[in-house]
Each structure stands twice: as C-alpha cells, then as structure tokens.
Design brief:
This protein is an alpha+beta fold and about 500 residues long. Among the domains are: about 100 residues, Thrombin, subunit H (Beta Barrel); about 100 residues, Pdz3 Domain (Roll); about 90 residues, Roll (Pdz3 Domain), CATH 2.30.42.10. The protein is built from 13 helices and 28 strands. Strands 22, 23, 24, 25, 26, 27 and 28 form a 7-stranded antiparallel sheet that branches. Strand 5 and strand 6 form a beta hairpin. The protein is globular and about 80 Å long. The N and C termini lie far apart (about 120 Å). It catalyses: Acts on substrates that are at least partially unfolded. The cleavage site P1 residue is normally between a pair of hydrophobic residues, such as Val-|-Val. Keywords: Hydrolase, Periplasm, Protease, Repeat, Serine protease, Signal, Stress response. It is an enzyme of class 3 (hydrolase). One of its GO terms (cellular component) is periplasmic space.
Length: about 500
C-alpha cells in the first residue's frame, strides 16, 4: 500500500514539473517574440506568424481579428489654392417658368465661391512594423502633404511624421507620434508565395475603414510600367482607391505585399509590391530617409531569340550592353559594348529588369563578380559599384531622335519604351510626333506607332530606317508595317500628293 502511495506522489510531482516547465517555455517564447518584434529593424526579421504551415486552415474571421490591430488608416491634408468644389445651386426660373440659360456661366465666374486657400484631403492605408510605431505605406499616399493622421483599429488617432520615402518604388516609412508599444504585423517571405495561394487585403477603400477582402495570388513578377523596378504580385482580392499602402496577408497572417496599384478599367486585378523588396529598402529609409542605389554605368537592352542566335548564345538570357559610360564602374571593369551580362554577384541574370533590380539593391562601394558573354564564351570581370545619382542618370545615353521627310519625329526604341508600349521586344523606331497634314498623317500613322518594316524589310533602329528610305529613293510610295498597341498594320505612305 505504501509503495502504491509513493508511486502516485511521484506521478503528481512529475506532472507538476512538466506543467511548470511548460509555463516557463511559454513565457520564454512570448519574451522571444517581443524581443524579435523590437529588433525587427536591425535584424530584418519578422514576428512569429499567426499560423504555422502545418496547422489546420483557420477561418478568415479568426485571422482578421488578429491582423486588424496592426493595420492603420491614413488621412492626409495639404493646403492648396483654388476653388473648392461645392454643390451647385438649382438653376433659377424666369417669370415664365423657364430655366435661366446664363445661370451656370454667372455662377462659375461671379458666384459666391471665389478662389481661396483650402485643405485638400486624401485617404490611404498602412501597417505597423515596429512597436515604436513605424508604419509602411505608399509614397503617393503621403507625398506633398502638410498633415498626416493615422487611425488604429481601436479608433485611436495620432499624428504621424515622414521618416523616409522612395518615389522609384512608391514606398514610404512614417512614424506615429505616440507612446507605444503598438501592435505589429509579421513580415513574410514573398519569394515563397505561390500563384493560387489565398491572400487577404485590409485597408481603407473609399474611406470605409478596415475593410477586408479575400482572393488568390493571380500572378507574380508583373511589370505594369510604374517604374524601373516593377515586380508586382497580382491578386484578385479587391483593391480600390484608399487601399494604397495597406498590407496583403497570406493565410499564415504574414504580410507578403503592399497594395499599390489597380487597373481602373478592370475588375479583380490589383497589384502589390513584394514584401521582400520592402525589407531591403526599409533600413535605408529609417537611417537616411532615402534609398541609395548601386550604379554600373551602362545602357542595356533585352536579348531576344534573334539576338541570342546572332551572338552565338543558345537561349535568350541576360542583358545586352548597348553603351558603356566612360570612367564609370563598368568601363573600369572592362565591360564592352556588345557584352551580354549573364551573371551578377553570383546570381543568374534572366533579363534587363532583373539586372536593374540586383544592381540597385547592391550596397554602394561593393566589389562584385560580373560574368559577361563575349565572343561565344563567358568572361569574368570584377566591378566596384558607385552610387546612382540624378546627375549620372541625366548624363546617361539617351535615345536618338530624328525628324524625317514624311513629317514624323522618330526615335530609337529602348527596352523601357518597349515595355510601356506593350511590345515583346525592343525593335523598331517609335513615332513621337506627327506633323498635321504631312504624308505620314495622311497615311494614318499616329504618335506611339512603332515602325518595324519599310517595304517588307525589317527596321530595328533609326540607322536601318534611314537605310531603307535611301534604298527606296525614286519610289512614289512606300509600305510601312507598324505596331499599334496590340495589333499590326500595313500603311502606304506617299511621297507626293
């Protein structure tokens, strides 16, 4: 009997031991989470996610309850001069019951609304990433504003100040002027986001605070012409004006994107900046208020199948160097015009935009390995990056322009122009101006058209275009093949008549 009682006591003591140990582990885990939240900046880490990958799929309502506190509504105001819009007064009727036709004219120019200073207000969203009150949002939400107000899910409102911003990626960092700690959003890994994965958007669309929409990731790596570093996540979770700067969450409760852009004519098409891009830029915004980018000093273009074949390369890859700026890093490293940059700092370069992103994201003064495809083989070079400045950008090579005999202004097409015009390749000459009544105008050529053939011969640049015209001397008319948006056209341009 005594042995039995001793055994029961042992079991109870062991159970109590495990309980105390469990409480200690839980306490330590909570402490670790808080410390990681406080060190989010310096370590670039994120909070422990709301849900682990192996957990059962939670309901959206459970997620929203946990995520809402870290999402903020942002309202801004700036002082502008002008005539604020006010509802018009009803048109007065004359003694015969007719509307006065001059009422609108007199109201517009002599009404009770003279030009004056007034506050123009706008709305946006953001999310807190640090217990001290640092908030991530879009640059266009807070740009050129005099006043920033942040409202939390608990209805508390605070003033906020701009810490740093970057117009090239439309990213901004602001700070709440209030005492923390504030609830913090966990930052995820956008590289591991899969197409078809569920996502949630929380924001302030049209002023409807903390609205929640759900959808899936429709695509990744979208280029929408917003800037040189386009790499957007596309989602069909509803994003509307006022959602800008708000978070896009995955099903684990981690921020994977910053809702940034919409297509006004489309439904179910929204774009979010990948959070991994944001992680790379935030420390610079906090420390210096701006982003410093690496500079190579080259002009580049995409490599298509024809170019790859002509350069003796198998499949198209890398970025083709069209010019090298004298005295800049690439020139000092030995890069030559006609080289195809295929690897940068050990990373494969797939295309022009990827090279732009990795160069811009490399710390200033870094010495990196560069691999170029030259004369049928890879050549390894070493380059030391300097800082990109507005002066360097202004002095970089620009597309050539030419006014020709048919009354058009033409320019060489660059990869950026090709992207803006929705072309698959940077081939042809773009029409930037058409003189009214000219031969080109009569033929139906419009600004934005890309001439890719003259008399059924390909045109890749201005030099080739001029050669085709020289060859066609003495002919009264020429057949142009132009690309216009998503279709091609043959147009006859006459030299006389």
């Amino acid at each position: 009997m005594a042995k039995k009682q001793f055994g029961m006591k042992s079991v109870i003591l062991v159970a109590l031991g495990f309980l105390i140990l469990g409480l200690l582990i839980s306490s330590q885990s909570n402490l670790t989470t808080r410390l990681r939240a406080e060190k989010l900046w310096t370590e670039g880490s994120s909070l422990v996610p709301v849900r682990n990958p192996g957990d059962p799929l939670p309901s959206f309502s459970e997620l929203v309850k946990k995520l809402k506190p870290s999402v903020v509504n942002i309202s801004t105001a700036k002082l502008v001069k002008g005539r604020p819009r006010t509802p018009r007064t009803p048109r007065p009727q004359d003694p015969f019951g007719r509307q006065n036709p001059f009422h609108d004219f007199f109201e517009r120019f002599f009404g009770d609304n003279p030009p004056r200073e007034f506050r123009q207000r706008s709305l946006g969203s953001g999310f807190i990433i640090n217990q001290e009150g640092y908030v991530v949002t879009n640059n266009h939400v807070i740009e050129d504003t005099d006043e920033i107000q942040v409202k939390l899910a608990n209805e508390k409102e605070y003033e906020a100040e701009v810490v740093g911003r970057d117009s090239k990626t439309d990213l901004a960092l602001i700070r709440i002027k209030g005492k923390g700690p504030f609830p913090v959003a966990a930052l995820g890994d956008s590289d591991n986001l899969d197409v078809g994965e569920w996502v949630l958007a929380i924001g302030n669309p049209f002023g409807f605070e903390h609205s929640v929409t759900a959808g899936i990731v429709s695509a990744k790596g979208r280029v929408i012409g917003a800037g040189p570093y386009d790499n957007y996540i596309q989602t069909d979770a509803s994003i509307n004006p006022g959602n800008s700067g708000g978070p896009l969450f995955n099903i684990r409760g981690e921020v994977v994107g910053i809702n940034t852009a919409i297509i006004s004519t489309g439904q179910g098409i929204g774009f979010a900046m990948p959070v991994n891009m944001v992680k790379d830029l935030l420390p610079q915004l906090r420390e210096s208020g701006k982003v410093k980018r690496g500079w190579l000093g080259v002009s580049i273009q995409s490599v298509n199948e024809e170019l790859a074949s002509s350069f003796g390369m198998g499949a198209p890859r890398g970025a083709l160097v069209t010019s090298v700026m004298e005295g800049e890093p690439a020139d000092k490293a030995g890069v030559k015009r006609g080289d195809i940059i295929v690897r940068f700092n050990g990373k494969e370069v797939k295309d022009v935009r990827e090279l732009q992103r990795v160069v811009a994201g490399t710390p200033i003064g870094s010495t990196v390995d560069l691999a170029v495809f030259r004369d049928g083989k890879e050549v390894r070079l070493t380059v030391r990056l300097t800082e990109m400045t507005d002066e360097k950008l202004a002095s970089s090579p620009t597309p050539q322009k030419s006014r020709e005999e048919f009354g058009m202004v033409l320019e060489d097409i660059t990869p950026a122009l090709a992207q803006d015009l929705g072309l698959g390749e940077a081939r042809g000459v773009v029409v930037s101006e058409v003189q009214e009544g000219s031969a080109a105008s009569r033929a139906g050529i419009q600004e934005g058209d890309v001439i890719q053939e003259v008399n059924r011969e390909k045109v890749s640049n201005l030099k080739e275009y001029k050669a085709r015209l020289e060859k066609a001397k003495g002919k009264d008319s020429l057949v142009f093949y132009v690309k216009r948006k998503d279709r091609g056209l043959f147009l006859v341009v006459k030299r006389t008549g």
